[in-house]
Amino acid sequence: MTGILGAALQVVLVAAGAPLLVGLMRQVRARAEGRAGAGVLQPWRDLRKLLRKEPITPHGTGPLFRMAPLVLAGSTLVAAAVIPLVTTRSPLDGAADLFAVTALLALGTVALALAALDTGTAFGGMGASREMVVLALVEPTILLSTFALSVRAGSTNLGAIVTATLDDPQRAVFPASLLALVALVVVVIAEAGRMPVDNPSTHLELTMVHEAMVLEYAGPDLALVEWASAMRLTVLLGLLANLFVPWGITGDSLALLPAGIAAVAAKVAAAGAALAAAEVFMAKLRMFRVPELLAGSFVLALFAVASSFFLVAP
Amino acid sequence: MTPTAFAAALALNLAAAVAGLVLPRGARRAAVGTLTAAGGAAAAAAGTAAMLGGEWSARLPGLLPLAGARLALDPLGGLFLAVTGAVAVCAAVYGIGYTRHGDLGGRVPQAMLPVFVAAMALVPAAASASTFLAAWELMALASLLLVVAEHRSRDEVRAAGLWYAVMTHLGLVVILAGLAGFAAAAHGESFERLRAAADGLPPAGRAAVFLAVLAGFASKAGIAPLHVWLPRAHPEAPSHVSALMSAAMVNLGVYGIVRVGFDLLGGGPAWWWLIVLAAGGLSALYGILQAAVAADLKRLLAYSTCENMGLVLLGVGASGLFAASGARTLSALALTAALLHVVNHAGFKTLLFLAAGSVLHATGTRDLDALGGLRTRMPATTALFGVGALMASALPLGNGFVSEWLLLQSLVHALPSGGTVTAVTMPLAVAAVALSAGLAIATFVKAFGVGFLARARGAAAERAREAPAPMLAAMAAAAGACVVLALSPGLVLPAIARPVAVAVPGPDAVSGPVTLRLAGLSGTVSPLLIAVFLLVAAVGLLALLRAAATRRAARRPARLWDCGAGPMTARMEYTATSFAEPLQRVFDDVLAPETDLDVTPLKESAYLVDSVTYRTRIGDRVEHRLYRPVLAAAARTGEAARGLANGSVHRYVGYGFYAVTGLLIALAVVR
Questions:
Q1: Which residues, 6+ apart, have CB-to-CB distance to B653 below 8 Å?
Q2: For residue B203, is the peptide bond before it cis, meaning its omega torsion is within 30 degrees of 0?
Q3: Mutate to test the interface with A, among B288, B375, B420, B445 (most CBs of A within 10 A)
Q4: Which of B197, B178, B190, B184 is nearest to B71 (CA)?
Q5: How many cross-chain Cβ pairs, A to B, lie less than 8 Å apart?
Q6: Which of B7, B437, B419, B317 has its CA nearest to residue A143?
Q7: How far away is chain B from the Cα of A153, in angstroms, using its nearest Cα?
Q8: Alpha helix ranges (H) inside chain A
């Protein structure tokens, strides 16, 4: 019961909270830059505005172009239901582990890249090409960090990893966990298209990755894409927060669900605010410096695996 | 059931070969295609029956000289026979439509297709070294004749045929040497005798046998650096033959390694399997990297075969490694993953090669840079290739995802139980699998997105027409098999557990009809549930969007954003080469692309440019660095040796005299 309710709550929480997280991050950034900012609710107002606009089909695009936002948002919602955000008892937890969640998120990215190629514009191709490079190079780091975390828990199951950390709080400060944390932070930044890998608010061709892919979307389609990318960021930050700082998450108890909601909301908000604050001081990397950054995170993940074996092996 | 079906498979293929030779051109295609498809179906039935427990063996003393032929089907051979049969059904039906034009309808190509299928059915059924080698050679010869079927129309076919002939026969030589040595030491050549004698062999002898057959079989499986024939032969062969070679023939290399390594030699020390694992990992990475930058559609698919066979071998190597360290459950899991990947790869590679053949049939080109826009002209082929690309890129809803998931699980769980060796190799193996998975996604996004979506980049693609019905039916059958494998792997996993048990005796490694559960390890995944949830989420979102969007107007077409510069032309689109350029730059050191820039200035001034020619080519670096020097050295030796033979008979008699004298002296010294 807790599980089903918790999973439903997670989906609703991610769906409703994701634009607020983006709003919060923009607000933090605005304040740090000495601007007043548009308020935390602005992304929701933007979505409402886009939904009122007329649906548009650019010339020469096919069904894949129209389906891609649905796949992107749908895969993110499934990930939101599966991963332990509010509760570790999601009934769907057995359906997908950390490998599968990663692959599920990649499926959304691939749908969007194909849609971008489908437009036949140079922007679309450029965005898709760059996004695929980032995706391909991020994959090893994700799986190696997963490896490092699952060695300690004896399972790649997300609920099991979180529960293992809850049972033995010392795990959170083991070298393996810390190294994996740093590696995964880089990965999350790359996957979510944040600075310094991608600039979510750019409109300059040279620096666009994600924005170049969605250039042809308008109206309700664009609303769905924007909403989905906010949800992806929320899911990734929530996953990161709960893998390394799982306290506050609900187990079996129904009464503790509100506490679980409050805890994950606070953690994700804090992580988002920290990310936004860090972005103020960062410039976007050149496209061909990004692989160096990702290679660095890969090495950290490799160290994480090595230390998980050599430092704490019985 | 097994012997009847197996005999029927051979008889039907023989009938098809005869039909191909004697029937007139008009009736030939349909007769050969139908009979070969029936033979393939019978082979698949025989293989399935053998997998489900109908083991069978026979001795035919009169069939081969000296030793006679021995045949036997156990679950392991049955798996490979079933895969071969299923691929043959699709390829044969497809061939009815595909071979309508050109050289492919001729007597030799038509008759060789069923011979090839029959030879591939005989290889996993062989139960003695001589039978095995005879079937192996028959398979090589039939496939060689099929590869060169179009040698009249294209020059590259001859070069491809030459590379293939040399590599496949060098492979045969080392396998022959290995098995002959094994048989000599075992005082018998039936597999039973070899199996019984393996334990008594000295370790060095066993290792020599294993390394020799490993080299030969790895070359057949397309494992780098012995893969060089593959990216040449697959693109030049007719497409249904490419599908047979890539989805069925290369598997037999894996079969050979599993059969000899696990079954006949009974496993071995960890270092054997470390070699297999390393070769698999390197081949996976090298193959997919070359595929990611390839602009020729069939070459891309051929390199993807290198990658997938690399992953399979990585699983086989991991399995052997775990077995050597005593971890039976893990070993069974890794081998299950490898064999499931063989089945999955056969499914999607059949589909992809056949779809690529349809594109070639419709447009006459394999160059992705000249394709595009096939979505509107060939909707069915586009959809089917899209399914195949999803299956091949290890994403959820694809069948490749399931086997790669199992492979990763076996690697991840290895750590606590193994020693230092596993602690060092497993993270690297996981990294290799992960990087190849990521690059595979980029590769197939490129192949599908650039080749089929957007707008046509060339005149050939603009005139494309949808493929005829037999071709579409064959592709649809392959796609259907892939979807079943992707959504309910639980259906086939019990059948795969039996072949695994032949190599690694023990309980089933994976169980569960909907949710896959690992035996003795923690880890579950449910592809069907993921698919259902994804569908529910997408439909729900669509309904929500319909309800929330306040304007219910029909979708209005609009111009693409062209920076205000007027209508966009197809030349502005990203091509396959430009799509892969960032990856090529990232992996510059590995790929070593060759670029040429020719600037021709005007006569009047060196600063005014008349024309600029830019050429870039990404060759196969292994071929350049490893094979070219050897070939050049052989050619130089040949040139130098020409001076020895000047035509004088006296000199030749002298050579004979000195040779005999030298030999006698050497013998006198040694004895």
A1: none
A2: no
A3: B445
A4: B190
A5: 257
A6: B437
A7: 10
A8: 2-32, 42-51, 63-82, 98-118, 122-153, 158-167, 175-191, 210-213, 219-244, 257-280, 290-310
Chain A: residue whose CA lies nearest to B452: A118
Two structure tokens written together for B289: 């990297």
Closest residue in B to A67 (Cα) is B538
How far apart CA B301 and CA B448 sit, in angstroms, is 12
DSSP H or E segment with residue B73: strand B69-73
pLDDT band at B552 (very low <50, low <70, confident <90, very high): low
CB atoms within 10 A of CB B62: 7
Which residues does chain A have within 8 Å of residue B559's beta carbon, measured at their own beta carbons?
Answer: 58-59
C-alpha A42/C-alpha B120 separation (Å) is 65
Which residue(s) pair with A304 in the sheet?
none
Mutation choice for B interface testing from A107, A157, A288, A290 by most B CBs within 10 A: A107
Chain B residues within an 8 Å CB radius of A58? 557-560
CA distance linking residue B548 with residue B551, whole number of Å: 9
Half-sphere exposure (CA, 13 Å, Cβ side) for A85?
Answer: 34
CA-derived radius of gyration, chain B:
27
All residues of chain B having their beta carbon less than 8 Å from the beta carbon of residue A54 are 551, 553, 556
Sign of CA pseudo-dihedral B487, B490, B496, B500 = positive
Is this prediction's pTM over 0.90?
yes
Interchain pair A130, B582: CB under 8 A: yes
Nearest to A155 among B523, B551, B583 (CB): B523
DSSP B319-351: HHHHHHTT-HHHHHHHHHHHHHHHHHHHHHHHH
The reply to whether residue A147 touches residue B541, judged by beta carbons under 8 angstroms, is no
Distance of alpha carbon B586 from its chain centroid, rounded? Answer: 26
According to the model, what pLDDT value does residue A313 have?
47
DSSP assignment string, B464-517 = --PPPHHHHHHHHHHHHHHHHHHH-GGGTHHHHHHHHHHHS-SS-SEE-SSSEE
Q: pLDDT by residue (tens digit) across B433-488? A: 999 999 999 999 999 999 998 888 888 888 888 888 999 999 999 999 999 999 98
Of B396, B416, B582, the CB nearest to A104: B396
Which phi and psi (to 5°) does residue B240 adopt? Answer: -70, -25
**With b meaning 16 or more CB within 10 Å and e meaning fewer, what string describes B479-490?**
bebbbebbbbbb
* Distance from the A34 Cα atom to the nearest Cα atom in chain B, whole angstroms: 33
CB-CB neighbors (< 8 A) of B555 in chain A: 55-57
Of B376, B409, B433, the CB nearest to A156: B409
Closest partner CB to B522 (pick from A64, A118, A160): A160
* pLDDT one-digit tens code per residue, A53-99: 888 888 888 889 999 999 999 999 999 998 888 888 777 767 778 88
- Disruptive mutation site among B390, B561, B571, B572 for chain A (greatest number of A CBs within 10 Å): B561
**For residues B249 and B420, what is the distance between their CA atoms, to the nearest angstrom?**
36
Cβ distance A58 to B582 less than 8 Å, yes or no, reads no
Helix axes A63-82, A219-244, angle to 10 degrees: 30
DSSP state of B568: P
| Beta-carbon separation of A309 and B423 below 8 A | yes
Which of B444, B535, B355 lies closest to A113 in space, CA to CA? B444
Task: Verify whether the Cβ–Cβ distance B441 to A291 is below 8 Å.
Answer: no
**Cα atoms in the 13 Å half-sphere on the side-chain side of B450:** 33
Residue B372 CA, distance from chain mean position: 26
Minimal Cα–Cα distance from B460 to chain A, Å?
A: 18
